[in-house]
Each structure stands twice: as structure tokens, then as C-alpha cells.
Amino acid sequence: MAQELRPAWSLPPGTPDRITVPVEWPGQVTREWAWGDSTGKGVSVCILDSGVDGDHELVGSVSRAVAVSLDAGGQPVVEDDLEGDLCGHGTACAGVVRSLAPDCEIISVRVLGAGFTGSGDILLGGLRWAVEQGFDVINMSLSTTKRHFSGILHELTDTAYFRRTVLVASAHNMPVESYPWKFSSVISVASHEESDPMTFFYNPDPPVEFFARGVDVEVAWVGGSKIRCTGNSFATPHVSGLCALILGKHPQLTPFQLKSVLHLTSTNVGGGE
Amino acid sequence: MSDELRAAVAAGVAGSEEGYRSLLQSVVEVARAIFGAKASSVFLLDEATDELVFEAVAGEGAETLVGQRFPSSQGVAGWVLVTRQPLIIENVTEDPRFAKEVAESTGYVPQGLMAVPLLHEEQALGVLEVLDRPQRTQFSLVEMDLLGLFANQAAIALDLLRRARKAEAVLASSVEGAGIVAQLAATVESLEDERRAAGLKLLSALEEVLRSDEGGY
What we know:
The complex is a heterodimer of chains A (273) and B (217).
Chain A lengths: L30 H5 L8 E6 L14 E7 L5 E5 L8 H12 L4 E6 L8 H15 L3 E4 L9 H13 L3 E5 L16 E6 L8 E2 L7 E4 L3 E4 L5 E5 L1 H18 L5 H11 L8
Parallel strand pairs in A: 1-4, 1-5, 2-4, 5-6, 6-7, 7-9
Antiparallel strand pairs in A: 2-3, 8-9, 10-11
Helix pairs in contact in A: 2-5, 3-4
Chain B lengths: L2 H11 L2 H20 L3 E8 L4 E9 L9 E3 L3 H9 L3 E4 L5 H11 L6 E8 L2 E9 L9 H33 L1 H16 L2 H21 L4
Helix pairs in contact in B: 2-5
């Protein structure tokens, strides 16, 4: 079916009314406007990690779980995941998302657990698959330091951005270059020390854009257990959960608009109101 | 390589492993002391076997753990290595299954642990762990930054150790080849004027041909 020709590279005279911005913006963007009464229902959140234990009480359910591996030719293969979480970390992230957005849909893409060798290619394969599926939010509490992956990662994160898939990625607190959290098309997250899960700060001083709860967080772990963890890995799913809440109420938001809403509702900009 | 040059390289490499090991040991000792922890260890990734190997241990397990290895996909250390993300976990003992898994990568069951990847340039070389620092009501992110600084130091030491081992391996495996090269160098050295220039040109061309094949497959 031929699509209606829409302005893309330039805007011809008399056509601005063909651009529709479906969200009605209030005079002041408050948290009530942003996610009041939202439970994240209707929003898909993909956890790109070590797998997710869907039977854990803090996770609830997982609608689909796949695992990525490399075939004999070194190409990534995506298959149904029959092993679940091999480490506990993916379950921890899923539990944090669920605690904020209880009715969101959680999908697990396992890219960890097969050892170090080939892990970069598996990560890329998993991310590519997740972007192709068109999930609303992808939580990435991991990064790669391999420079030769940065170009492909950049393309993938930009593709996600323009397809309205929000990528939320953990920042690094070490003096090395790593990807993709430094790219502007993703939402990068580091930790603050507050204990309130709804407290988050916008950082105008790059590279990291938001700080969320990441210290001494009780999280789900393997075997139905709970442990207390610290790390940017746990701050990231807090922001993914917030994104799910916002998209649950305003599904038409683009990643750019969503990031703006996060900025306006952050504790240090909107005062947590 | 002339005998002198070979001897010089060998002298440079000889004993360096011991020196870098001492440096690593010093890093884990200081990390343990600064955090007031029960133990601290550094793991090196053995890429050939995809395993993590205990390279230096301070405190609990120091006598028994060095040299022990486990799969790089296993447990907290494996996760930290692959994701390049630091992780701090408290109350490990509350979950017996998790505690068992951690014990396999630490030598005993700690109450809590901090693990940080050792990154040098774009390579992930291993993991630094600090076990059982005193429990506090509130963990401070300053400690995380401090751990990151230690990790940077440990990564440099680990990189030097890896390089020294590679150099030793090259020297050990190239005795025969080095002999031929040394003989060739001596022959060219003994030639005069034009023949010497032609010999050097030939060697240079040979080196170029050999180099152009590198990485071609």
C-alpha cells in the first residue's frame, strides 16, 4: 500500500498542517500529567541481559524469552531461551522495572552467560533483534569497550531512536571509553545515593544524562532470592520503569519527547511534582 | 635479531613477570587495607581457554587460590567482565545457592563483595574483587569511585604482566628462527659496500613481503 507522501527533508509552503503532533502538551509538565494512574500497561520492556527468571515473585511474568548465541560461522542466532537467568542480574533488572511499572510486558533477551569470547557479537546480535521487534523500551545495563563495535552500535541506536524504541543504557564510572551509553540517541543513567525509587536527577553536564536510584537496592536474584546491590546497572531499570509508566499514559511520545518529559519531571528540574 | 639484541630483549623480559606480580599483589593488599576488607583478589582473563584465573590474592585464600581458574561465564566475576559494569552485592549468605556460586569464585563465602572490571584501552583484561568490607548503613558512591581508581591501576599492572608473558613466549618459541635471523644479520654485516646495500635491500623487501601477509586471512 502506497503511503501518503509526507514532508521529510524539507517543508513545502502550505504544508505545516500535515505535521501532526498527537500529544497535547500542558502549560506545565507535571508527574501527574506524565504518568499519573499509569501502570505501564500496553508497554513492552526488553531486558537485554543474563536472562530473566519469570517465576520470581518480584518479576511476575515474562511474555517471551530468547537467547542469543553464535553459529559455526560466527553469526548471531536468536532462539527461545530454555535456561532462564544464568547469573541473577537480568532478573534483578526486570524486578526493578516491574516494581515501577507493574503492568508492563517484559521480554528477556539473554546475551550473557556463554563466556567472554564472542560476547560483543552476541550483544550486537541481541540488540539488533530487539530493535527489529520494535519494543517500546530496551534496558541495557551493559556496555562494550571494543571500538570497532561503536559504529554499528551507533547505527543501531539511531535506528531504534527513529523507530520509537527508547534505549536506556548504564553509564560507566571508570576512565575508559565504552558504548553505547555515550550516544545521544540513548538515555544514559548513573546512580545517586537516595533511597526513593522515584527520585531522579537530570544532568546537563554530559556525558551521563540522568541519575537514578542505584545504591543499596533490594533486587530479585536467582532461585527466587533477593539481595541488596549497588551499581549503575540497577539505576538504569529505574529509568526504564519510568519510561514504561510515561509511555503507558502517552504512547505516541517519540524518544526525544520522552527524554524531554523525563527532564521536566526530574527531581532537580520539576521539583518532583 | 643479533645475539646481542636477543640477549638485551631477553634481559628486559627476564624477571619482569615477578616484578609485575609484585605490583598486582601490592594493588590487592592496598585495596584490602583501604576498604578494611577481609580479602581482595585480581583475576586475569585467559582468552585461550575463556577462563578467569586468580593472579593475586590478599587476605583470605591468599595461600591457596592463586593459579586456580573457573569459566569466564560463571558468577559475579564473569558478569562483571562481560558487561564491563562494576557491581556491589550485600548479604550474599542469605541465598545459599548464590553463596555457593560466589564461594566457587572467591574461595569462601563472603557477606558482601565489590567487583569491578579491569579495563585497559579497549580491552577487558580481568576483574578486581574486594570481599567483606565492613557493613555500613549507607554505601557511598565515593567508595565506588575509589574502587574504579584501583581498578585502573590493577589493569595497567595486569596489562604489563600479559605483555611480559607474551614476550617470554615469543622468545622461547623463536630460538631456532632467531638463530637463522642472527646468522643472516651477521652475514649481511660482513659484506661490503654494494653487496651489503643489496643484501639490506633484499632483507627489507623480504620483511615487507612477510609483513604484507599479516592479517590477510
